[in-house]
Amino acid sequence: MSGDQILQLFAYLLPAVVTGAVAFYFFRLHTRNEDGRRRFLLHKDSQKETLPIRLQAYERMALFLERIALNSLVVRVAPTGKKKSDYENLLIKQIETEFEHNLSQQIYMSDGCWNIIKTAKNATIQIIRSAGMSETDSPDKLREDILNQTMEKESPSAAALAFVKKEVSELWD
C-alpha cells in the first residue's frame, strides 16, 4: 500500500470516526436524560403514595405531644389512690404507653425530628420525677406542683410540637 492510498483511506475513515464519536456522545447524553426523567417520575409517583402516610405520622406524633403536655396530662389522668408515688408512676406509665403506641411512626420522620420527640418525652418524665421528689405527700399536691412547674417555663412537648410543625411545613417547599 502506497502513501497515497493510506492517506485516502484515512480521509474516508476520519469523517466516520467523528460521526461515530458525536453519535456516541449524543446517545450517552440522551440515555442519562431519560434515566433522570424516569427517576423523577418514579420519585413523583412514590411521593403521591408516601406523603399522606408521612403526614399521618406527623399528625399522630403531634397528638402524642399534645397528650403528654403536662397541663393536659395532669387534667386527663386523675389520681387513683392516696399515694403520691402511685400517681407519679401512673403519669409516667401513661406517657410510656402513648409513646410505645406510636413507636412505628419514626420510620416516616427524620432522625432529628424523632430525637426531638424522644427528648420531649424524657424531659416530661424528668419533670414528673423531679416534682415527685418534693416534700408533698398527696397526689393532688403533686398535680399542683407539676402544674406550677409548667407555668414557669415552656413545656418540652410544646417545643417539640413547634419543631414537628416546622418540619411538616418544609414538606411543601
What do these coordinates show?
The protein is built from six helices and no strands. By secondary structure, it is mainly α.
Instruction: Describe the global form.
Output: rod-shaped
Low-confidence runs: none
Indicate the mean pLDDT. Answer: 89
Quantity of strands, as a count: 0
Q: What can be said about the biggest beta sheet? A: none
Secondary-structure element order, as H and E? HHHHHH
Helix content: over 70%
Protein name: DUF2726 domain-containing protein
Pfam family, one: DUF7935
Keywords: Membrane, Transmembrane, Transmembrane helix
Transmembrane segments: 6-27
Keywords summarizing the entry:
single chain, 173 residues, transmembrane helix, DUF2726 domain-containing protein, DUF7935
What order do the helices and strands come in, and which of them pair?
Layout: H1 3-68, H2 70-76, H3 84-101, H4 111-132, H5 139-152, H6 156-171
Helix pairs in contact: 1-6, 2-5, 3-4, 3-5, 4-5, 4-6
In summary, what is this structure?
This protein has 173 residues and is mostly helical. Helices cover 83% and strands 0% of the residues. Pfam families: DUF7935.
